[in-house]
């Protein structure tokens, strides 16, 4: 039996179905992240678990006991919110002590516990500072210590880092993970930031429109997204509507080109699919103008898919440089190359794109979704989609 079980939970607000028949199991000591776009129901799930909302249907079990209708103040949960929500007229130590005072512990014990907790979150020397004397990151550390003070069985974190700047976000998420592992704490963490979710979690529940799309370890979610939504939401990717040909032996038609993909014995010939290729699995090789037609496909065609194209955008991202390349068939590819390989490639440059069959993830793709994709882009459905929020900004026009 799982430590925390959500069984067929549903919650509506008027006509809005915030959560729909959600079933989820969280193990003791597990760090589970609810990931999804704004409005997909993440906060509502957390509030249902905390007892701030009542479910319309379904059950919540903690450690084998049903807590579905138990009031919030009688659930052993700690919560940290997006906004720091500290008491402004209390010092860091007094904030942490708040829950302990309610429990009528002795002042000596409370003081010792606060010292331990502030040390745990790296604020041993800030015990007597008021919230306005602390940075956003430090305030969130105090909020974390305060939530941990009452020794909750489950810690609920609702976008705790989203108000902080990028560098602090990364440091603090590592701290949260360290503390969670040190204490063996069970955590449900809410975020819409896929990179954060991949970095911090044991497992990720990807949500869309109140429903669970996929549940799995970060690597599994990234490498084997099971739905078109997950493939688009988690990680950058090239996504190309295509059609299977000789599915069982792994061929796929993309416009004029026949690509090699992993065999798809479950799918039939002629099925509409979405090809998903991660940017780091494609390589680019510079071509001289004349090479475009002289690419020797005969040797490497067995191992690699080869396409010619032209670099449209180059975006320096630090560790990698991201390229947008338009293949000669019109498809757009996103390609990430590490520093040295990227140096000589600039917009306007003709290139050879190469990626092995194993780099292609093949997802069933309904006709309606294909039409919607074509409609959104204003192009034929064979043109690759790069999600707008991850569209790189041009380094050179
Ligand atoms: N108290 C409420 N009254 C009415 N509608 C609500 C209420 N709380 C949530 N909703 C609606 O339920 C849906 C899910 O909201 P929820 O806050 O759970 O999403 P979310 O994934 O956490 O979004 P965000 O990341 O923007 O916080 C949304 O359509 C929201 O407008």
Automatic annotation (TrEMBL):
Residues 374-397 are annotated as: Disordered. One of its GO terms (cellular component) is ATP-binding cassette (ABC) transporter complex. Its EC number is 7.6.2.9. It is an enzyme of class 7 (translocase). One of its GO terms (molecular function) is ABC-type quaternary ammonium compound transporting activity. Residues 374-384 have a biased composition (Low complexity). Residues 4-234 form the ABC transporter domain. SMART domains: AAA (SM00382). Pfam families: ABC_tran, TOBE_2. The keyword Iron-sulfur does not apply. PANTHER family: SPERMIDINE/PUTRESCINE IMPORT ATP-BINDING PROTEIN POTA, SPERMIDINE_PUTRESCINE IMPORT ATP-BINDING PROTEIN POTA. This is ABC-type quaternary amine transporter. It comes from Thermogemmatispora aurantia.
């Amino acid at each position: 039996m799982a430590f925390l079980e959500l069984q067929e939970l549903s919650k509506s607000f008027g006509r809005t179905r915030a959560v729909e028949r959600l079933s989820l199991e969280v193990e003791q000591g597990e760090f589970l992240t609810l990931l999804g776009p704004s409005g997909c129901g993440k906060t509502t799930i957390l509030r249902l678990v905390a007892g701030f909302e009542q479910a319309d249907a379904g059950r919540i079990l903690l450690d084998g006991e049903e807590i579905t209708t138990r009031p919030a103040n009688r659930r052993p949960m700690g919560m940290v919110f997006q906004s720091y929500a500290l008491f402004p007229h209390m010092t860091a130590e007094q904030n942490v002590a708040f829950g302990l005072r309610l429990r009528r512990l002795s002042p000596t014990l409370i003081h010792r516990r606060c010292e331990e907790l502030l040390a745990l979150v790296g604020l041993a020397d800030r015990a007597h500072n008021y919230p306005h004397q602390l940075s956003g990151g430090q305030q969130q550390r105090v909020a974390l210590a305060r939530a941990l003070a009452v020794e909750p069985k489950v810690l609920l974190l609702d976008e705790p880092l989203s108000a902080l700047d990028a560098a602090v976000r990364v440091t603090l998420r590592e701290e949260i993970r360290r503390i969670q592992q040190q204490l063996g704490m069970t955590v449900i963490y809410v975020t819409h930031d896929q990179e954060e979710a991949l970095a911090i979690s044991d497992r990720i529940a990807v949500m869309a429109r109140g429903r669970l799309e996929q549940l799995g370890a970060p690597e599994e979610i990234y490498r084997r997204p099971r739905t078109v939504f997950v493939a688009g939401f988690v990680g950058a990717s090239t996504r190309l509507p295509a059609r299977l040909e000789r599915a069982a032996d792994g061929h796929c038609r993309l416009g004029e080109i026949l690509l090699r993909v992993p065999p798809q014995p479950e799918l039939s010939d002629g099925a509409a699919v979405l090809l998903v290729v991660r940017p780091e699995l494609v390589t680019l090789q510079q071509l001289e103008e004349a090479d475009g037609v002289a690419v020797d496909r005969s040797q490497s065609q067995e191992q690699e898919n080869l396409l010619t194209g032209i670099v449209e955008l180059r975006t320096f991202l630090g560790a990698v440089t991201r390229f947008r390349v338009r293949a000669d068939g019109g498809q757009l590819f996103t390609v990430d190359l590490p520093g040295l390989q990227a140096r000589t490639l600039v917009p306007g440059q003709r290139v050879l794109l190469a990626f092995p069959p194993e780099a292609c993830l093949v997802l069933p793709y309904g006709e309606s979704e294909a039409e919607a994709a074509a409609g959104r882009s204003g192009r034929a459905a064979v043109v690759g989609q790069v999600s707008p929020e991850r569209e790189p900004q041009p380094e050179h026009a």
